[in-house]
Design a protein that fits this description.
It is built from two helices and eight strands, in the order βββαβββαββ. By secondary structure, the chain is of the alpha/beta class. The strands form two sheets. Strands 1, 2, 3, 6, 7 and 8 form a six-stranded mixed beta sheet that branches. A two-stranded antiparallel ribbon has the order 4-5. A hairpin with a 5-residue loop joins strand 4 and strand 5. The termini are close together.
Length: about 150
C-alpha cells in the first residue's frame, strides 16, 4: 500500500464536469493498494496518517496532526501509484490490487480515518477524476505499508 499525502489549503474532485467532493484545509490522500495488502496494514497506515504531525503550531513548528487543526481529508483511490517502470517506458500495473479486492480495503482505510474523528470526503473508486488542489507548503509525503 502506498499513500501520497499532500497538505492542502483546499482540494476538490470533479467527475464529468461535476464536483463530487471538496475540502478546505487538510490532507489530500492518493491511495494505492498493492497485491498482498491486508486489512491490518491498511488500518495501521490510516492510523499513521491520522497521527502525522505535519501542521504548524503557534511557534511555526510542524507539531500538530489533522485533528488538532480541525482539518479534513480528501481520499482518492489511485492504482497508478503502484506502477512499475523498471523495464521500458510503458508502466506496468501488475502489482496493483484488483479493483474488486482494492475497493473494500480503500473503504476500510477511509472508515478508519473517520473512526479517528476526521472528516473524510472521497472521490469515486475507479472513476476518471480530475483533482484540483492548492498545495500548502508544499508539503508532500509518500508512505508505504512495508
Amino acid at each position: 500500500m502506498r499513500v501520497v499525502v499532500q497538505r492542502v489549503k483546499q482540494a476538490a474532485v470533479t467527475i464529468a464536469e461535476h464536483q463530487v467532493a471538496s475540502i478546505g484545509p487538510g490532507l489530500l490522500l492518493f491511495v494505492g493498494l498493492q497485491e498482498g495488502d491486508q486489512q491490518t496494514s491498511v488500518v495501521k497506515l490510516a492510523q499513521k496518517v491520522a497521527k502525522l504531525r505535519i501542521f504548524a503550531d503557534t511557534a511555526g513548528k510542524t507539531n500538530l496532526n489533522i485533528k488538532a487543526v480541525a482539518g479534513a481529508v480528501l481520499s482518492v483511490s489511485q492504482f497508478t501509484l503502484l506502477a512499475n517502470i523498471n523495464h521500458g517506458n510503458r508502466p506496468s500495473f501488475t502489482e496493483a490490487m484488483r479493483p474488486e479486492t482494492a475497493k473494500p480495503l480503500w473503504q476500510l482505510f477511509n472508515h478508519t480515518l473517520m473512526q479517528a474523528g476526521i472528516e473524510v470526503a472521497t472521490g469515486h473508486f475507479g472513476a476518471d477524476m480530475q483533482v484540483q488542489l492548492v498545495n500548502d507548503g508544499p508539503f508532500t509525503l509518500v508512505l508505504d505499508a512495508d
